[in-house]
Amino acid sequence: MSTFLGMPARAPRGVGHLRGDEPFPAAARVALANPQLRSNLRHATTTIRGKSGRVIAELPDWQELRSAGSALKTYTMANLPRLLEQLEEKVTAAGGVVHWAADAEEANRIVTDLIRETGERRVIKIKSMATQEIGLNEALGEAGIDPVETDLAELIVQLGHDKPSHILVPAIHRNRSEIREIFLREMPGVDPALTDNPADLAAAARRYLRETFLSTKVAVSGANFGIAETGTLAVVESEGNGRMCLTLPETLITVMGIEKVVPAWQDLEVFLQLLPRASTGERMNPYTSMWTGVTPGDGPQNFHLVLLDNGRTAVLADEVGRSALHCIRCSACLNVCPVYERTGGHAYGSVYPGPIGAVLSPQLTGIEDNASLPYASSLCGACFDACPVKIDIPSILVHLRNQAPHPRTEKAAMAAAAYTMDRPRLYRRAQRAAKLAKLLGRRGRGLPPPLNGWAASRDLPSPPDESFRDWWRGR
Question: Which of 3.40.50.300, 3.30.420.40, 3.40.50.10420, 3.10.150.10 would CATH assign to domain 24-312?
Answer without folding.
Answer: 3.40.50.10420
